[in-house]
């Protein structure tokens, strides 16, 4: 009895340690965001703010840098992310239906293409995409940026949705077809409602892809007006002498929606990413 | 089964009503029409740009070409120039070394946490997994900013903590130590940051794999008095080999590509700490550079490196999943 109990205690201690190490940086971000400056730069750090303050949030929300408030960048980020979700979701759904429901020439080729392009280092593509957008006069344009993000979100989105479409029993569609429903009707009445959870998961993934992206936005959106939230963070961060209070407040505002979304879909992210690997 | 479906459910898009064409020979356009938009998007936004960097890597492309002047072909000049540049070799070394260290650390930490999650009770496991997910979900930009703050020079927590430790162990003067002044400390922080962000995915994948291993195997191992180390290498690892294969290749690819975190932590000004992607970016977009051809040649090197690993990855996925 004794050794087993000891082992349990050891395991649980290790568990708590893993929890602390994993969550601590995010905790420290939030904690710093609420601390007055004396506490942030004090030589003995306080684990939690002794005199919590909202002034850093106030600074970020109400026109911190050059009088442009957080909400301005928030709207830009939201427009880009929602645009990415809608367009890539639609394209991914169509393509996923094709590969999950039909057998056709080049189907395997298409699937392998999806796998390979997911891995293409996007960072390497900044230069040509910059030049192309410049020639199309789409630099400093939310539409241009959205288009680029659609390209990044689409391959994984299609790959992930394909599993969801394949999981819908074909018999349901057969039954609808026998009852005289055309393909379009079958799609909207049978397939779409059943794939909806997968569509939500894929959408959240696309949303996070667009929401988090820094490099392309930083390179393409040189007008401060058109910047997205990750660039706004760089405005605070890049300034002389880091003013950690506002930086952490802005980081908190940028991060919390992502964590909330992520917790909703994490299970599906895993199954999408290592799809099939566990089946051995 | 698929064939039955297709027999019953004709593909959409059979609107063409050419009377002369016999129905049987009519190409079934349905699936092609469905993948067409995605295919075009991927071709324009991902494949064509790869072709473009391949082409530009043999050209001199600068600000004039941005204004529409035709680019001049320079043959292998760009490659010759980067191969003769110490900065390139430093960046390549950083890229490879960082990938080795970060991938090894990510896989070891992730696997250990996955094994731990599997051994914990239900509630404890859910609790720990919650914390692990927070690390996973944090956007790379914020993660980098947070670690810049943790390792900050004034008020940084790590410096304060290291100064609490006895001097004979870690030395002194950490409170004012600048972690972002030279490659070694730079990459130390980067590695910690990247491992912190990427071990959760490994842990959760390993956990998912462990759940598929029949419990009797472990039961038998325990009865035979097998040590934890032996059990892992004799049972867990062989059974989860496919999972580890995918995790390894994915991690290598991701860590070859690391950009955002290094960009935030060390920045464009700090050319000693460049890796390949940052080096290429800086040649193109760094102040006063605009050497797009040179940047493309560097990007090409990175792309080829990544695509080699991707070939292994794709083969593994295709074998395991059967892309049928």
UniProtKB/TrEMBL annotation, chain A:
PROSITE patterns according to UniProt: ABC_TM1
Domain ABC transmembrane type-1: 74-265
Coiled coil (residue ranges): none
GO CC, alphabetical: plasma membrane
Origin superkingdom: Bacteria
Cited InterPro entries: BP-dep_ABC_trans_perm (IPR050901), MetI-like (IPR000515), MetI-like_sf (IPR035906)
Cellular localisation: Cell membrane
Keyword Repeat appears in the UniProt entry: no
Record keywords, A-Z: Cell membrane, Membrane, Transmembrane, Transmembrane helix, Transport
Gene Ontology terms: biological process: transmembrane transport
Topological relation to the membrane, as annotated: Multi-pass membrane protein
Stored Pfam families: BPD_transp_1 (PF00528)
Ranges annotated as spanning the membrane: 9-30, 70-98, 110-131, 143-165, 186-211, 244-265
Family assignment from sequence similarity: Belongs to the binding-protein-dependent transport system permease family.
Protein name: Sugar ABC transporter permease
Provenance organism: Actinoallomurus iriomotensis
UniProtKB/TrEMBL annotation, chain B:
Compartments reported by the entry: Cell membrane
The keyword Nucleotide-binding belongs to this UniProt entry's keyword annotation: no
Gene Ontology BP annotations: transmembrane transport
Keywords associated with the record: Cell membrane, Membrane, Transmembrane, Transmembrane helix, Transport
A GO CC annotation given for this chain: plasma membrane
Record field: transmembrane: 29-51, 96-117, 124-151, 187-210, 231-254, 292-314
Topology in the lipid bilayer: Multi-pass membrane protein
ABC transmembrane type-1 domain: residues covered: 92-313
Ranges where the record places region Disordered: 1-24
InterPro entries registered for this protein in UniProt: MetI-like, MetI-like_sf, UgpAE/MalFG_permease
Record family assignment: Belongs to the binding-protein-dependent transport system permease family.
Listed name of the protein: Sugar ABC transporter permease
